[in-house]
Amino acid sequence: MTDPSDTVDAADVGALDDKARAILRQNDQGDYTVPTKGLYPFQWNWDSALVALGFATFDMDRALREIETLLAAQWADGMVPHIVFWQDDTGYFPGHGEWGTAVSPPTSGITQPPVAASVLIRLHQMGGEVERVRRLLVKLDRWHRWFAEARDPDGRGLVAIIHPWESGRDNLPDWDRPLSYVDTSKVGTYQRRDTQHVDAAQRPLKAEYDKYMALVQFGRDHGWNAEAIASGNPFWVADVGMNAILLRAERDLATLATALGEAVIADAATERAERLAAGLETLWHDELGGYVSLDLRHGDKADTLSAGTFLPLYGGGIAPGRAAALVATLRDWRDKVAYLVPSYDPNVERFDPVRYWRGPVWAIVNFMVARGLADAGYGELAEDVRADTARLIAQSGFAEYFSATTGELCGGKDFSWTAAMWLAFASPSASAE
């Protein structure tokens, strides 16, 4: 077993703790936190939820307010958008004008992985004010019901994503084939802003961005109508990561609702979780020995593994034999890279150690994979993942993500969710859960 305290000098731990808190404060806009200044100037959905875990280590009121602000932008149908444009900033593309959602506050038209319920139960366990938690619980139940209704209209137990951005893993190679069906002939010209802040070698390619914009335009042209999107959006994919995270969120929502005496919510969440658990098992790929995503439009499963392959461990309830197979794969990957967990299989030619979700290590994914490993009884490997996260941050700072082979800083600097993961997970001073 590797202890993070063995890989981070004890004298540096306090300084890193202080730096992480300082990053959260400098990115704090009062009621919400930007991921990092310049590159991402608004409130992002799963960023905010995970950032709340960091705030909770030193300011519970601020942690709850982060999630309250996010859910204040919930749509009437229950959807919680992936970006909330609380102020104007012409330096970001695509801004709210490109989304055309006609809601107040202005938001994007898509969602992101629903980690908020799993964060909220932790805040409750840490002493978060009960009535504030209860109000958030009700809103999260609405969001989870929306997933079941809008993104699994056939009741098969798999929710669909309608855009790679919804997965949170934008340019994952899993999306290459489903995106090949997206028509970009009407996209037109546009000016990206991300590559003005970050090395283009670490960002999605223009050809991929054209596909992203075509999907934004499809949603906008159809008024973000859930039924029209379900029937006609060219990208309709069961992302293994989204489904595993939602499964964990439903289970956590049910546990939290039971603790608060909200039996109706608990029963509904439990029923949804059971359906998701059954659906998730259909994503198992016998030849690859892991869980993969499924293109629901064309019936094609992804033909390679990614970090998302391990997230069903986080979702919970995986059969011991399948858990053992996942662990064997992760140990194989550990021999191929310097740091766990690469976002894509390092044995595959398309692996790129620095290009966004095609290979780099992300602290937030490490947090979830480590939790899943520990829950499944693989505590030693979970500690290895935690230790690697600590080493990366100690070596390269609070980067958006890190090279899996060299550990170098990639993407944005002084990143909020990386700071939060240090405080809540990777730091040797983090409280044991």
Please, could you describe this protein's structure?
It is a single chain. The chain has 433 residues and is mainly alpha-helical. It contains 18 helices and nine strands. The strands form four sheets. A three-stranded antiparallel β-sheet has the order 3-6-7. α3 packs across α18 (416-426) and α12 packs antiparallel against α13 (263-281). It is globular, with a radius of gyration of 20 Å. The relative contact order is 0.14.
Note the topology:
Elements: H1 4-7, H2 10-26, E1 43-44, H3 45-56, H4 60-71, E2 83-84, H5 96-99, H6 116-125, H7 130-150, H8 164-167, H9 176-179, H10 206-221, H11 226-232, E3 237-238, H12 240-259, H13 263-281, E4 284-285, E5 290-291, E6 294-295, E7 300-301, H14 311-315, H15 320-334, H16 363-375, H17 379-396, E8 401-402, E9 409-410, H18 416-426
Antiparallel strand pairs: 1-2, 3-6, 4-5, 6-7, 8-9
Helix pairs in contact: 2-18, 3-4, 3-6, 3-18, 4-7, 6-7, 6-12, 7-12, 12-13, 16-17, 17-18
Going across the biggest sheet, name each strand in turn.
3-6-7
Strands, count: 9
Label the structural class.
mainly alpha
- Helix/strand order, N-terminal first: HHEHHEHHHHHHHEHHEEEEHHHHEEH
Most strands sheet:
3 strands, antiparallel
What Rg do the Cα atoms give? 20 Å
Q: What average pLDDT do the residues reach?
A: 95
Shape: globular
Strand proportion: under 5%
Helix content: 40-55%
Count, helices: 18
Unreliable spans are 1-5
What separation lies between the terminal Cα atoms? 18 Å
